[in-house]
Amino acid sequence: MFTNSIEEYNLEANEYSVGHTSPSNIALVKYWGKFGRQFPRNPSLSITLDKAHTSTRVKFSKKDTQGISLTFKFEGNEKTDFANKIQKFLESIVEEFPYLPLYHLDIESSNTFPHSSGIASSASSMSALAMCLCDFERELLKTKPSEEDFLNKASYIARLGSGSASRSVFAKMASWGESYELGSVNEFASPYIDFAPLFENICDSVAIISSGEKAVSSRAGHALMENHPFAQTRFESAHHNIATLVKALKEGDFKSFAEVVEIEALELHGLMMNSRPSFILMATNTLEAINRIRKFREDTGTMVCFTLDAGPNVHILYPQSEKSTVLKFIEEEITPLTQGGLVIHDHMGNGPVKL
């Protein structure tokens, strides 16, 4: 899938520079567990963010020697550990881009959000790189792809670098993984726009409970699902939750939306708690924030809920119509629980942008 023969490219270009920004995303129904070549064990659905994004620029320079070569700078500094990861990634996708060994890549990248902030940097960084790679391919191809084919391949390539990155290629919301309800597939993500006006431009405020490194990497976390006693139950639960979430999104039913989103977050952490080895990824203030959000919702009727990534930080979701009320609540009740008073305010975004 998404492969071309070397004859389909015009390889006269000696140099090409391209840049893209690509956002992170926050999953409402979580992808946890994978198989084969980065395929998900269950479908997922996410909100594409706006302000939290990675900017990546790549300069492709033709060279005399064969083989993948690159330099990588993150926020102006060379990062050999990241460069090694990207080297392995590029070597794994030569079948998809057969001309890559002919070019040296100078890659520069930066984020608009702090590392270990509870915002998925792998999703934004790998999708931004995928957009640059596919942009260069489009430049070289003798027959240009349609916009739909271009985005599908970018999502496919992003997936090979980081599963959740496949969803960041699309605006607003995106689904990934085989699902009858969504009509989505495992190979690449799909845009999801069948939601009521209530959810348009939905807000996501990320309370940074702790900015330390996660106790377990996402890669290791996915691997723990291989022999997990509740794995099959979890995969079935995700399909059920997707169906419930899709209905809530279409009908503008925030109550059902909140129930599913919060259950998904807690299921993810529950799976980590009873895996072998076991990991507790929440902090004391994670639970305190959750309790305060639920009490505030119950006391006031405000449309607000939480979700979590595989870490201690809390994503607070709410419609634009509730923004002033929720921001006041966050300032008074949640900010004191955070590390250094850090809360990152974001909202639904429109996907990658070419620089």
Alpha plus pi helix count: 8
CATH topology annotation of the largest domain: Ribosomal Protein S5, domain 2
What are the secondary-structure elements, in order, as H or E? EEEEEEHEHHEEEHHHHEEHEE
Q: Please report the total strand number as a whole number.
A: 14
Broad shape: globular
Strand content: 15-25%
Q: What's the architecture of the largest domain, going by CATH?
A: 2-Layer Sandwich
Distance between the termini: 28 Å
> Can you summarize the main beta sheet?
8 strands, mixed
Q: Give Rg in angstroms.
A: 20 Å
Global mean pLDDT: 94
Name of the top-level CATH class of the largest domain: Alpha Beta
Assembly state (oligomeric): single chain
Which residues form runs of ≥5 with pLDDT under 50? none
Class from secondary-structure proportions: alpha+beta
Tally of discrete structural domains: 2
Helix content: 25-40%
Describe the structure.
The structure is a single chain. Helix 2 crosses helix 3. The mean pLDDT is about 95. Strands 1, 4, 5, 6, 7, 8, 9 and 14 form an 8-stranded mixed sheet that branches. The radius of gyration is 20 Å and the shape is globular. It folds into 2 domains: about 5-195, 2-Layer Sandwich (Ribosomal Protein S5, domain 2); about 200-345, Alpha-Beta Plaits (2-Layer Sandwich). It has helices at about 80-90, 120-140, 145-160, 220-225, 230-250, 255-275, 285-300, 325-335; strands spanning about 15-30, 35, 40, 45-60, 70-75, 75-80, 105-110, 175, 190, 205, 305-310, 315-320, 345, 355. It has 8 helices and 14 strands. The protein has about 350 residues and is α+β, with helices and mostly antiparallel strands. The longest helix has 21 residues, at about 230-250.
